[in-house]
Hints:
Layout: E1 4-8, E2 13-32, E3 59-68, E4 82-83, E5 87-102, E6 108-119, E7 122-126, E8 131-132, E9 138-141, E10 162-167, E11 175-179, E12 185-191, E13 201-209
Antiparallel strand pairs: 1-5, 2-5, 2-6, 3-4, 3-5, 7-13, 8-13, 9-12, 10-13, 11-12
Amino acid sequence: MLTSAEYQFANTLDLGGVSALELTRRFITRGIYPTDLIDSRTANIDSWDEFDGDEVDQVNAKLYVRKTDDDPSSSPTYGIWNEFANGSFKGRGFQFKAELESSNTSQNILVDELGYVAQLDRRTEQSEAVIARGTGSKAVTFTNPFFVGTSSILGSNTKLPAVGITAQNMQSGDYFTLSGVSATGFNVAFFNSSNSGVDRNFNYSAVGFGKLD
């Protein structure tokens, strides 16, 4: 009979870039006697703490996490496994595993909940100075990319940042168009009432999640 076991989560948490995030573990276990029948016990009777099997106190379970700053799909180098405590972490890829053990072969352990909650902070990025647009479409690059979702986390580009534009020298009938919003930036173009491109200065504010390196 096995006295210990290890389960590594099948999927790696990949943020798509290095970022800080909050990790909270979901880990609920309980010890059991698979059966209280005397004939089912395999340990020496001299080692039994409870003859009727009421108390199960010789099992243990731990949850571990390790991380990497590399692309998890390209032969990454991970750090050591550390026992998982709720807190702030920084990395790109995160892996998790559970270790279960029993020092009494008559006692076993059940896992009722096993997982984690990952949370990225909401972030606002603002232009530090007025931006001159010029007469063509202006491509703006964020200082730090935002997390916008991946194919395995929430869906690709499902959490795009909300971008607001504040123009400085608009004339009557002027308007602007915003396009190409992504994790790394956006495009903005200004037009007059005749739909001709015009040169206008602006500031921007972008609200999203995460701060990828």
